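dude i think i finally got it to work??
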Amino acid sequence: MLVSACGGTDDSVSGSSDMEVQASFYPLEWVSQRVVGDRAEVTSLTPPGAEAHDLELSPRDVAEMTEVDLVVYLSGFQPAVDDAVAIAEDTVAVDAAELTSLDLTATDDGHDHGSEDEEGDEHGDEEGDEHSDEEGDEHSDETGAADPHFWLDPLRLAEVGDALAEQMTEVDPDGAQEYEENAADLRADLEALDEEMTTGLSDCESTTLVTSHQAFGYLADRYGFTQLGISGLSPEDEPSPAELAEVTDFVSDNDVETIYFETLVSPDVAHTVADETGALTATLDPLEGLTDESAGEDYLEVMRANLATLREGQSCT
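look at this
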């Protein structure tokens, strides 16, 4: 298992040990902090407020990654990190893609949707942004690229925490009991969050999430929604005029009340659809990074803010 990391940040630190753990972006930083506790310092490769997809690394960053005890990253998510992993030697690293199931893919164009009732009943079983056994084996199929945003399903993130505890035990056997206990506490918090979200989203009038890009497939899959992304998996993707018109027609025809845009990404596309249809807009945070404007100080708080946003935007009772 490989990884990359380093150089980019950061004043988010846990512990006072001489051990160092580096994570490539915020969700992996947060889960690493929870697992290592006071036994290691944790830093993030992606600076606070930066768009994680756009991360670039200097030669010094790549060289410095060999000096830490462990690097945690997600292959296929940040090209600069993958490139660094390919050239860095003597780096102890773990790929989160190997620690949980990445079994969702994006659709070819994010569209081709029927009525909301049909989508809501099937939860997108016929769409590329939902999963199948074959997709889980191959991490992608003919319908599109693998969706990397697994951390928006709290139970998948708990799996990564459990696996990181085992990895840290290999690096630091003396801390085995602490890592195990920390991972258990983390899992308890994430399972409690999952229960809150399952209950809070169990009865919603609208079951289609219209989002600025396809970052919420795992959240949709976990809690019974179908995601309709205006753009693709990358926030830099721009919809064609035909695609934009198709989404606009869907929103109008199905009385969709809310279009969601993200932190760290321009809301222009979401506002365009909203202006054409009379829908409202709201912020749904994909938690790729925190800023001073985030609706919480950590993963748990922001996910609960997302829950409140969804309950209002999807008319949940």
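The longest strand covers residues 208-213.
im so relieved honestly
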